């Protein structure tokens, strides 16, 4: 990798540190140091994208061709710092960088073959304004930098308010988000395409499913799902 003079200069003025362990990053490292990157709790789902614990969440409920998450999400673990920082600490750069890293790892396995477009799970406008960005959209941007697959942020809107999901059971969660997405009438994606839904963390799969169900009204659509993290139940 070619390191720009600007990167080297910025490193001198304000050294970048690993988002997981806090160690100083070398100019070739991005967001996570080599050692932490090596030890992230990878799921291996991209090795069997049609049958894995995340793909099984959708079986019988939504037709999904492939589903994979890069890492397991274990609250309060070291790797959870990545998720925490991108969701609650303003680290938009972490979402983009992790999208890039995941794309490099999954592309080797042919995960993106045949995908036409990515649709990130939208946030409500008020949530997006508060956070300043939609982390799922930034993960998709990072993936796009590597794969060249376009990102469609206009296809869907998150309409209804849904309460925080954290204290709900799986079934309550599905009920909670069921009607909160809609297709944007002015920007409906073309028919007969393979759409990759991009999310940050999948736990029950309810949000992803609500989003996907909305897209299934498009003629001939095929769906796959990619998320940065998957919560082990
Ligand atoms: Zn580290």
TrEMBL record:
Q: Which SUPFAM superfamilies does the entry link to?
A: PRTase-like
**Residue runs in coiled coils:** none
List the CDD domains hit by this protein, alphabetically: PRTases_typeI (cd06223)
Signal peptide coordinates: none
Domain of life of the organism encoding this protein: Bacteria
Q: Which InterPro entries match?
A: ComF/GntX_DNA_util-trans, PRTase-like, PRTase_dom
Membership in a protein family: Belongs to the ComF/GntX family.
Protein name in UniProt: ComF family protein
Q: Which organism is it from?
A: Xylanibacter rodentium
């Amino acid at each position: 990798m070619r390191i720009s003079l600007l990167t080297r200069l910025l490193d001198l003025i304000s050294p970048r540190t690993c988002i997981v362990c806090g160690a100083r990053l070398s100019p070739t490292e991005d967001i996570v140091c080599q050692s932490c990157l090596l030890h992230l709790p990878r799921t291996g789902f991209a090795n069997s994208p049609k049958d894995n614990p995340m793909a099984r969440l959708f079986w019988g409920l939504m037709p999904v061709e492939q589903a994979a998450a890069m890492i397991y999400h274990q609250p309060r673990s070291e790797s959870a710092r990545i998720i925490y920082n991108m969701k609650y600490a303003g680290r938009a750069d972490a979402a983009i960088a992790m999208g890039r890293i995941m794309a490099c790892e999954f592309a080797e396995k042919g995960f993106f073959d045949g995908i036409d477009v990515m649709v990130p799970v939208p946030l409500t406008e008020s949530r997006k304004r508060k956070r300043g960005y939609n982390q799922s959209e930034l993960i998709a941007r990072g993936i796009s930098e590597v794969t060249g697959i376009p990102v469609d942020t206009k296809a869907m809107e998150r309409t209804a308010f849904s309460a925080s999901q954290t204290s709900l059971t799986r079934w309550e969660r599905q009920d909670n988000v069921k009607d909160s997405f809609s297709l944007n009438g002015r920007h409906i994606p073309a028919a007969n395409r393979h759409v990759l839904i991009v999310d940050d963390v999948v736990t029950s799969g309810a949000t992803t499913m609500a989003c996907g169900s909305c897209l299934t009204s498009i003629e001939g659509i095929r769906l796959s799902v990619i998320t940065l993290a998957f919560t082990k139940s």
